[in-house]
Amino acid sequence: MNNVTVRTISGVAFILVMVACLVFNKYLFAGLMVFIMAVMLLEFYEITMGHSYTFSKILAILAGEFLFGVMFAASSYHMPMRFIALAMIPVFIVMINSLYVKDKEEYGKFSNIYTGLLYIAVPIALANLIAFDKAGNFSGNLLLCFFIIIWCSDVGAFTFGISFGKRFPKKLFPTVSPKKTWVGFIGGVISSVLAAFILYEIGLLKFPLMHSLILALIMSVAGVYGDLYESQWKRVYGVKDSGNIIPGHGGLLDRFDSTLMAMPFGAIYLGLFDLL
Fold this sequence. Notes:
With 276 residues, this protein is mainly α. The protein has two domains: 26-137, no CATH class; 139-276, no CATH class. The chain has ten helices and two strands. A two-stranded antiparallel ribbon has the order 1-2. The longest helix is centred in the C-terminal third of the chain and has 29 residues, at 209-237. It is globular. The termini are far apart.
């Protein structure tokens, strides 16, 4: 099969799995998020730390998963929010473990462990606040809307960039991502806002129309920065793809780079207006 066919099949399969896990029940949602977090942290650590400090990387991934578990319990089972502080214990264990590492030659790489937790684990753990309402009821509809807005922004940016990039070639951020253009950025914003309007019209986005459109705008812009942020890491370390778990698409970090910044910004906006 050619690359386009492989990308299409794997992309459709990926989306179907995502939708199924977000729609059916909270345990499938939790399993999906735990898997995505673990793979993305592993990919990030492989990019920035290579094969060194394996045990410390495993401890960091477990710390991220523990944070998600605590947030899941607080959101789903009404565990008091003060217990979220327990998630700091594994992080401190990672710090203490670094003292016992005998090879200090590349000790500076340990900073990437904490960067990965802040960059990947925290946003994924915050997905619990989107997937559960204040009464602890699970509904993946809002989180699914978030992903649809992000996906439409990415597809719109790609489509506009390919269609009009030669006519309007001004680059968005050439030092980090030479292929991204301003016309692609504009196309992504238009596509995400249009997606939000459709989601509002069919009843999936239950916020007032103006909030729905502003939400899409904020998430689209934040998603671009998320994409650029991951691109900068890969450029610094000379890596093309974060992994190869999805045939034709690269790694999960390549697929969720926009989400890691768009989702928290969307949640913050809704939280500020008491809509979450």
